[in-house]
Amino acid sequence: MALNMDALGKKIGPLKKDYGWKDVVLYALGVGAGFDEVDYTYEKNLKVIPSFSIAAIFDFLGQVGVASNVNLAGILHGEQELIFHNPIPTSGTLITEGKVAHYYDKGAKGALVVGESETFHSNGKRLFTNISTVFARLDGNFGGPDAPPNLVEFPERKPDFTVDAAPSPNQPLIYRLSGDIFQLHVDAEFAKMVGFEKPIMHGLCTHGFACRALMASLTPGKPERVRRLACRFSKPL
Q1: Paired strand residues for 104
Q2: What parts of the chain have a pLDDT lower than 70?
Q3: What is the pTM assigned to this prediction?
Q4: Distance CA 237, CA 228 (A)
Q5: What gap in Å lies between CA 94 and CA 179, rounded to an integer?
Q6: Do residues 84 and 50 lie in contact, with contact meaning Cβ atoms separated by under 8 Å?
């Protein structure tokens, strides 16, 4: 297998996703919300956790994988950036268009496949911009450019706040019902075949836990104030 160079820049979509309040609540439960966060888990006065956005358009990531011809046995979610333009309604239809934007060659480590997309609601409002980076462990050494450096400088002081969270060992079984049914997160034999001791948590599930933690400390009760989330998935859980 080899990455499909012809896929670079070609439009993907429009992809449409109908959703309702049960999808919003199921996602919230999948990323650890419960009775202490009924704004996200009960249809009365329901609000949407912003990271629901990338789970709701997971089909776009699948299309990026198909278009790029990435080797599925070696893929991991590498980085994720979301830029929010308007609050996400609790129901409706999401319309997403995007493309495979970049391939980066990491040599023997693998390759990075970057997909970019824009998502609108059926009410006409632009909701969010998505930049997803897939780490393709088996697709490196294709002669392409390396990724530009993206250094993060942490200040030399104690954190402003810390949050302890303990996902259930069964968390992937709930989270996968929001769209990512890749067998790496549930099938022990497949996980061992691709180099893991056992099934691992979805990176986007830990992403949702982090989003909840940040909102609880920075924008409690006001998910509409979240404007950008960016992260790198450095280790499996």
Answers
A1: 112
A2: 1
A3: 0.92
A4: 24
A5: 14
A6: yes
